[in-house]
Structures are given as C-alpha cells and as structure tokens.
C-alpha cells in the first residue's frame, strides 16, 4: 500500500522577511541654527576675542605712540640714557626706557610691550570658553577695552603700568603651569615698583603650588615660599648696588609729609622742633605746605613759602628721623588722622578739584615738553577719537576706592570657590586688595595710577571666574 504524499504549502516570500520594526526610509530634517545663533556662537569664540584685543592694542599704539609721559617718566628716561640712576625711581624701568631709546631713538618699544601685555593677558586667561560663557567673556573684555581707567593709563610710560603688566602675566603663566617664568615676572614687578612685594606675596604660594616636588610634605611649601619672598625682598637692593644708584632717600618724603601732617593738627608739636628752626617754618607757612593730597608743596613748592629741596631733605636725614619718631609717639591720634586723610584722598574718595585730579591724579594729557624730539600725533582721527572718549567719561572710574571694593568682593567669591581652582582666583583678587591697602601707611600723593594693578586684578580675577566651569564635574 503506497503512502499518499502530502502537499507542502508554499512559503510566502513576505514571511521570510526579517521580523522587527519597519525601517524608516524617510530622512529627518536637521534643524539648522538660526543666523542669530550662529552670530552669537561666533562672537563667543576665542578667535573673535583675540582679534578684537589685537585691534584694540594696535589702535592705542597708533593713537598714543611713543607713549604719554610725565616728569617722572622723563626723569627715568634721562637716567636710562645716561646710566646715572637714583633711588627715587626704579633703575630697572629706567634702564628699559633708556635702552629702548638708544636702540630706536624713541620709547615706542616699551609702550608696545605694555599694550601687548595688557591686550593679550585677559584673553589668554579666558582661554577657549564659548557659548554663554564666551559671550560673558566678550562682555567683560568690552568693559576692559572701553573704560579709560584701563587704556588711558596703559598708554603712559609709568612704572605702575609696567608693574601691572608683569603681575598680570604672572597670573597668565600660573594658569599655563609655568611657575619659573611666573616667578620671573614677580621679580620684574618688584624691581619696577619696590612696594609691589605686597602684591607679589599673595601670588608666591601659587608659584610654589605648581612645583610638584615642593608639595610632597608640609614643610617644603613653607620653606620654598619664605625663600622666594626673600629673593623678592633683596632683589631691588641688589640691582641698585649693581647699577651704582645714587641715594636720595626717597623715604624722607614720607617722613616729612607725616611730620607736617602732625604739625597741622597739633600746632603744639612744633615747639622745640629742630625742623622748624632749620627750615624756618611757622603756622602760616605750614598752612601752605601741608595738603593731605600730596607732598609736592613741601618738596617742589615755593621756597619763599617754606618749601625745601630733596638735597635739604637728605641733609636733614638724622634730625628728621628723630622728629618723626617723636611726633608719632607723642601725638599718635594726630598721626593716625593725618594718615587716614591722606589715604582717603589717595583712594579718590575726597572731593578733589577737577584740575588737580585730571592733571595729577588721572591721565597725563600729553608728553611734557622735552628736548628729545618725542611728539604725539595729535592730528590723527584715532588720537582725537580716544581723547574725546576719555574726556566724556566721569572721573569716578579713575579712583582707587571703587576698584578696591570690587577686588574685595571678588576675593570673597574666590575664597568660596578655592576648592575648585586651588585658590588662584582668591589670590589674584587678594593681591589687588593688599597692594591697595599697603598705601595706607605710606601714601604721599593722591593718584589713581597707584591702584592700576588693583583695577587690572579685578579683570584678571573675573576672567578666572569665567574661564572655569562652576565645578570640577561640570
């Protein structure tokens, strides 16, 4: 009996198709960023910041080269050209001015160096931040570029400006892990202004922290920090001896200013004073000589009204020192009131006259008359435009007080986030604070340029704040 075969059903081709969700063949349209979004992304980029910073520096150079100068600047230039230095000014900065002039017949190389440092420093600190942070970085730089308290002082050949550039690049090099070069900048800052050690001492721990071998135990950072501070303290004296600097006793300006301040508040202190007999001072002359805003009437005023020369000051070194010690001990209240009045004026918190503040405390309008052929190109549209911008701004931005307050605020922010950045932002802002406060016991003139590093430190600390994410895991 034969077996009856069964027909096998045909297999449907569709059944052989792989199972699973159907493949989408339609292409999904990709959303293109809007024109405004692309523009914002471009403005927030590092390349735009760098380009604009360089344009800013070039325009300032074109407008103000070979650099604005005061009588102090011309004195340092003369010393640098002749090699005859005094301790009234920085021989280091005088040397740079003099050598630039001997090589080029002008001072433009020093000005170019200052402007390049001021232009690139904040841009490098901001790094490659983009997006919203990039836009905030551009806004910060916009304020930095526009305010005359930055650029109108930066185009002047002052040791205060060079000092601020050196400190700014100390911070830049610290962010780039170059502690050796950062310390070299601290040395340059201290050689430029001896009191800059009050700013440098807050940055020395950051230099030490970036040398791994020094962080292996607790004692090494302390020892290294003390040694580096010692180098900063002795470097100016070493350079002065090497350059055979003539001693003029610049500290005498402080002592005679303090003594006059005590006399003005306590006339009884003048009784038996060797200085009164020596210089024939009386109450009427003291009324002319003493101004809490400046020592200049005493040292560079009218001799017929009691003003003395720097040579007379040096000759009276011993009796003046004894008299200063006497009046400070006998009249501490008068001394402290004098110091406070001088510091308030120094901060720009006193109602100063426009002529005094603009001529002496803010920006020099031109190069003082000189016999070296140095001239400003005042006829150019760039120069006239910057001058008009400078004149349009209120003097409130060219006072040390507001910048000191901002530096204190940023130091507080930096202290709260010290675990995130190792304390660098705090140290930078605190450096500006200590530099400003250090003028309390030694100020002899009310000038904004003394607070230039404090102002620059505000922008440097703000740049560090923007350059890093809110936390290490962000």
**What amount of the residues lies in strands?**
under 5%
Q: Give me the Rg, rounded.
A: 31 Å
Order of helices and strands: HHHHHHHHHHHHHHHHHHHHHHHHH
Helix/strand-derived category reads mainly alpha
- Mean pLDDT over the residues: 87
Distance between the termini: 85 Å
What does this structure look like?
- With 474 residues, this protein is mainly α.
- The protein has helices at 35-43, 46-64, 71-82, 91-104, 108-126, 131-146, 148-154, 159-175, 179-192, 197-200, 204-209, 219-242, 251-265, 274-279, 283-289, 296-300, 310-315, 317-330, 332-346, 354-362, 381-392, 400-416, 418-421, 424-437, 452-467.
- The longest helix has 24 residues, at 219-242.
- The radius of gyration is 31 Å and the shape is globular.
- The N and C termini lie far apart (85 Å).
Please describe the topology of this protein.
Blueprint: H1 35-43, H2 46-64, H3 71-82, H4 91-104, H5 108-126, H6 131-146, H7 148-154, H8 159-175, H9 179-192, H10 197-200, H11 204-209, H12 219-242, H13 251-265, H14 274-279, H15 283-289, H16 296-300, H17 310-315, H18 317-330, H19 332-346, H20 354-362, H21 381-392, H22 400-416, H23 418-421, H24 424-437, H25 452-467
Helix pairs in contact: 2-5, 2-6, 2-21, 3-4, 5-8, 5-25, 6-25, 8-9, 8-25, 9-12, 13-18, 13-19, 18-19, 22-24, 22-25, 24-25
Name the features:
mainly alpha; single chain; 474 residues
Short summary:
The chain is 64% helix and 0% strand.
């Amino acid at each position: 009996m034969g077996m009856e075969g069964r027909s096998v059903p045909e297999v449907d081709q569709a059944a052989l198709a792989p199972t699973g969700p159907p493949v989408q063949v339609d292409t999904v349209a990709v959303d293109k960023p809007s024109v405004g979004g692309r523009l914002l992304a471009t403005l927030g980029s590092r390349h735009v910041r760098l380009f604009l910073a360089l344009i800013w520096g070039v325009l300032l150079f074109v407008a103000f080269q070979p650099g604005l100068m005061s009588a102090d600047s011309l004195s340092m230039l003369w010393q640098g050209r002749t090699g005859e230095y005094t301790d009234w000014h920085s021989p280091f900065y005088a040397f740079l001015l003099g050598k630039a002039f001997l090589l080029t017949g002008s001072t433009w190389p020093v000005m170019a160096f200052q402007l390049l440092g001021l232009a690139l420093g904040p841009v490098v600190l901001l790094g490659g931040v983009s997006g919203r942070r990039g836009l905030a970085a551009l806004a910060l730089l916009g304020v930095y570029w526009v305010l005359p308290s930055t650029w109108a002082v930066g185009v002047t050949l002052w040791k205060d400006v060079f000092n601020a550039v050196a400190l700014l690049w100390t911070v830049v090099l610290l962010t780039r892990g170059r502690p050796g070069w950062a310390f070299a900048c601290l040395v340059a800052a201290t050689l430029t202004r001896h009191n800059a050690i009050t700013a440098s001492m807050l940055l020395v721990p950051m230099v030490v922290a970036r040398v791994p071998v020094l962080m292996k135990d607790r004692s090494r950072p302390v020892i290294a920090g003390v040694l580096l501070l010692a180098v900063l303290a002795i470097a100016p004296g070493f350079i002065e001896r090497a350059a055979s600097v003539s001693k003029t006793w610049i500290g005498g300006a402080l002592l005679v200013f303090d003594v006059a301040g005590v006399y003005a508040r306590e006339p009884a202190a003048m009784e038996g004073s060797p200085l009164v007999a020596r210089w024939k001072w009386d109450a009427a002359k003291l009324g002319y000589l003493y101004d809490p805003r400046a020592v200049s009437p005493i040292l560079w005023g009218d001799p017929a009204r009691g003003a003395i020369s720097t040579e007379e000051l040096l000759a009276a070194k011993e009796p003046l020192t004894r008299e200063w010690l006497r009046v400070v001990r006998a009249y501490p209240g008068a001394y402290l009131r004098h110091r406070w009045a001088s510091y308030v004026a120094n901060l720009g918190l006193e109602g100063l006259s426009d002529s005094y503040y603009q001529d002496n405390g803010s920006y020099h309008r031109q190069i003082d008359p000189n016999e070296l052929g140095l001239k400003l190109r005042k006829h150019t549209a760039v120069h006239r435009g910057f001058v008009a911008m400078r004149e349009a701004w209120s003097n409130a931005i060219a006072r040390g007080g507001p910048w000191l307050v901002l530096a204190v605020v940023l130091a507080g922010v930096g202290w709260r986030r010290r675990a995130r950045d190792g304390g660098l932002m705090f140290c930078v802002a605190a450096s500006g604070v200590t530099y400003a406060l250090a003028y309390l016991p030694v100020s002899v003139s009310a000038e904004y340029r003394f607070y230039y590093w404090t102002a620059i430190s505000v922008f440097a600390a703000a740049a560090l704040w923007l350059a890093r994410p809110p936390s290490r895991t962000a």
